[in-house]
Amino acid sequence: MSKQDTETGVVAAETLDRVEAPVTWRAYAICVFASFGGIFFGYDSGYIGGVQGMDYFIKMISGPDATELLSWQSSLIVSILSVGTFCGALIAGDLADYFGRRFTIVLGCAVFIVGVILQTASAGLVLLVVGRAVAGLGVGFVSAVIVLYMSEIAPKKVRGAIVSGYQFCITIGLLLAACVTYGTENFDNAGSYRIPIALQILWALILGIGLMFLPESPRYFIKKGKVEEARKALGRVRGQDPNSHYVEAELNEIRANHEYEKRMTPETGYIGSWLLCFSGSVGLASSNVRKTLLGISLQMMQQWTGVNFVFYYSTIFLKGTGAVSNPFLMSLIFTLVNVLSTPFSFWFVERFGRRSMLLWGAIGMAVCEFIVAAIGVTVGFNHTHVVNGVTIANNISAVNAQIAFIAIYIFFFATTWGPGAWVLIGEIFPLSIRSRGVALSTASNWFWNFIIGFITPYLVGSQYANMQSGVFFLWGALCALCIVYAYFLVPETKGLTLEQVDQMLDEVSPRKSAAWKPTTTFASMEEKQTTA
Ligand code: BGC
Q1: Do residues 139 and 90 lie in contact, with contact meaning Cβ atoms separated by under 8 Å?
Q2: Beta partners for 384?
Q3: Which residues contact 197 (CB under 8 A, 6 or more apart)?
Q4: Which residue, judged by its Cα, is nearest atom 6 of ligand 1?
Q5: Which helix (H) or strand (E) covers residue 25, if one does?
Q6: Atom 1 of ligand 1, nearest CA residue
Q7: How confident is the model at residue 2 (pLDDT cuts 50, 70, 90)?
Q8: Mutate which of 44, 303, 307 to test ligand 1's pocket (most atoms within 8 Å of Cβ)?
Q9: Which residues lie closer than 8 Å to 504 by C-beta, 6 or more apart?
Q10: What is the DSSP annotation of 148-213?
Q11: From CA 322, how far away is CA 97, in angstroms rounded?
């Protein structure tokens, strides 16, 4: 029984603490293992850049005399993955509710392996593209459901840090892809592209087999009405006896919250349950439609920061300056800065909170991008001359300054918006729409990833908009928009259980959310209702 004031429903601090069971190291290890799914994401988006530049691969796809892929071939090979991941992420929400979070991730690994086998076996465009589409579906499943799974099993105090671990694995995946393709790019045989592609099977096997031994999310079982299974799963994720009073109290809270939500939302069929994600008023921060739009736009804004411009195009871009002797090495350095900076976010996200993190991150990124752009239009990238057919920068130190600010920009991204967007989409949705909300948000990440990858060559190419480093004015302006966005729309979810996040969004606006403290629990509200 909870200690509560019968009139106000305010419950004692010890009851508020009971909404989550204490956690053992083994339980932490379970959560951390799941973040391994990020390796897929990073590696799969990272390796294709390297492979496309390989001589053997170019000749295989475009003919023996080709020195580069035709634009439509390159665009098809790159973008088909995003199409697969976009669809995979959308379907994943339904599968995760129907078959469970864990099963959907394991299924994603299996689908991914099939896609990788097709790509490895390919010796031409068609099979390669089909393989990438299939692998993309698998990556879509994994990328959407891992975030959902991790947010649902992680203890509240370290949930942000643990989901940031997923982002850390994304950055390691990107780095691994860069290193492996660097190692094989000069092979004059099919091993040049087959090795980097086939290696991914290893990530899928580790994640898939490992997950078979991990427990299902207890919140999934509650949604399915399987309370006893939820109890066992919760016991395992917290490292406690399933019949202990700790597990009992946490289970009660999750169950009471779900019952509360069910009372608030009408029973509907399949279409109706999708429409539920868009129900309520856009003006109300606690409505489902607002949460769905928040998740979708968070991932959109994350892509709008321009980070993938640096990861996808920095090599080409730096080549154009004539000041950098080894552009590949430079982009490897950006990738390294990304990996080494991300662990700071484990601390930032729990110390300063999600809201401040996104706010300060956007400020930092905007400043760096405007500086890069300003140097570019005055003395840097845009000012080159050609000597004996070689492009030389007029001002090498200006280009170096730009490179330094791009690296600082990556630091800001890696410590704030990179992990922050993933952390928040796992936290803002109520259980009734959580799997779909996370799926829609992840699909939005892949959609904008694709759009930005697609339009960038047109923005910077000399035969098109020819913005050169002026493109950083655009990314800077979009980051300035992220500042306003974070200030007005992003709530603080640090230190709350997912059920308390629901309560908080019901009671205060995002701007006041950082000061919000829970005063009651769903279990005690239910208790009060039953006694009334
Ligand atoms: C983004 C990716 C990006 C990566 C870089 C992720 O959070 O969603 O698009 O390439 O971070 O580390």
Answers
A1: no
A2: 393
A3: 47, 51, 116, 119, 120
A4: 418
A5: helix 25-34
A6: 418
A7: very low
A8: 307
A9: 491, 493, 496, 513, 516, 518
A10: HHHHHHS-GGGHHHHHHHHHHHHHHHHHHHHHHHHHHTT-SSTHHHHHHHHTHHHHHHHHHHHHHT
A11: 53
53 or 303: which carries more pLDDT confidence? 303
Per-residue pLDDT tens digits for 86-133: 999 999 999 999 999 999 999 999 999 999 999 999 999 999 999 999
Distance 242 CA to ligand 1 centre (A): 38
Q: Is the pLDDT of residue 7 over 60?
A: no
Distances in Å between the Cα of 501 and the Cα atoms of 125, 191, 211, 520 are: 48, 50, 27, 12
Instruction: Tell me the pairing of strands 384-387 and 390-393.
Output: antiparallel
Q: Answer for the pair 519, 11: CB distance below 8 angstroms, yes or no.
A: yes
Ligand 1: list residues with CB < 6 Å. 45, 167, 170-171, 174, 302, 307-308, 311, 338, 418, 445, 449
Q: Tokens for 303, please give them.
A: 């892509």
The predicted structure's pLDDT at residue 415: 98
Measure the CA dihedral 420/423/427/433, to 10°: 110
Q: Report the chain's mean pLDDT, rounded to a whole number.
A: 87
The pLDDT value recorded for residue 382 is 57
Residue-level pLDDT at 16 = 60
pLDDT of residue 388: 64
Q: For residue 142, give both structure tokens.
A: 């994994």
Q: Could you identify the residue written with the tokens 């592609």?
A: 197
- CA distance to 40, 93, 165, 481, per residue, from 349 (Å): 23, 26, 11, 21
- Which token pair is 50? 């390297």
pTM of the complete model? 0.89
